[in-house]
Amino acid sequence: MSNFDSILLELGLSQPLEQKNGSNWITAESLDVRKMAGLMLASGARFITINGIELSESSEIRLDYHWDLNGELVSVITHTSNSKIAAITDICPAADWIERELHEHMAVDFEGAEPTKPLFLKHGEEPGTMLRKARAL
Amino acid sequence: MSYRIPIGPYHPGLEEPYKLDLLCEGETVRDAELNIGFNFRGVELLAEKRNYVQAIALMERVCGICSNIHTMSFCQAVEHAAGIAPPERALYIRVVMAELERLHSHVLWAGIAAKLIGFKTMFMTCFAMREKIMDTLEAISGNRVNYSMNRIGGVNRDLTDPSGVLKVVDLLEEEIKHTAIPIFTTDRSVIARCSGIGILTKEEAQLWGIVGPTARASGVAQDIRKAAPYAAYDRMEFDVPVQTGGDVLARLVVRALEMLESCRILRQALTQLPEGEWRGPENTRVPAGTGISRVEAPRGEVFYSVTSDASMNPRRVRVRTPTYANMPAIRLMLRGAELANAALIQAAIDPCYSCTDR
Prior knowledge:
The complex is a heterodimer of chains A (137) and B (358). Chain A has 137 residues and is of the alpha/beta class.
């Protein structure tokens, strides 16, 4: 029984968490990330980070959302759609910098995010030049 | 009248380059803007260009203070992905290195805090104490900054003189008990300078995902060593100091008390050090998949995600450092603060910009 079970059920994710490689994994092809963020925070879970991984088989980015609840780690895997996904920063301020970083390094567009000054990009650099192979300088 | 004060990226009040723009009214800070990226080296991209062994040396250079934590986190993530269980002796040696590193980091920060408070004698006392810890780290690893201790599946060097390290721990514990703890918990000047400033509430700390001593000083009792033990921490008895004040003084007290807990952990790890192998396997093939590792660094949780596509190099390495999680909260701490306290408040999270920028 996981601390996250009820949250995942509310998100429509009925498959069991797969415990392997240091985390508890679940894949959600179509995920309401804003609903997830709201439910996680309401349950007292702590946002850790989002990891972006460029998929070799498509132009989309795999996004792993990592959350901690009383020491238990859950990693929710989802994907961008046309390099886009909803922003969660307005619900979960802890995601601010990582959403901005993923936009700058992997050209992920976080829909609904406020335009901000770059964190890492230098003047004139295009998003994705760091970690998107097709856009590398 | 509002005016903007730019501090940094290179400034005597900052330990490393970053830029803080303070929007002030009179002597009161109304808001702050943080600008990072001055230490950006593209470590995550560089890791994709190296094999797993070469990447360890790269990760050691993410941070100049908690270099050991980064190699340990990276190796643990690879071990999780590859299904490798390091030998028991190696796990204990990792605990010893991690706690010595925590001690040297906390003492370093205490010295810098003392300097910012205007307590130069305490600054010198802390740095003299730190020197003993660095000498010990050098005696164990042969190095004072980048220790090269961790390898995938074990450690590179054995700990050959645990009783010698134990003597240093006894000495340090006495110094911490008789200098650091009384000064940082009862000295009137320290209390007057640090009490009630840079407040971060428990609710704010939880919402902003704050980690480590900064979170524990705001009443959030989270410590990865307890909550999700790694290495040999599940065999160690120790307490997690928590304060509820949420101010600079609370952060000072949490770190001071944590130094004693580190001595307690070190004593257990050194006296219970099991016999046997410590190196682990010579060659490692990492199957396709993603390995996750979390470690309680001196500044809080370090998170590593290493993705393999079964080739020689990692496909993707993601590093989330504690300062990356904690730094945005500086803005909350500074709102309403007196301008003269800004340097001390931003330093109170023990920021590491090198880690943050990677």
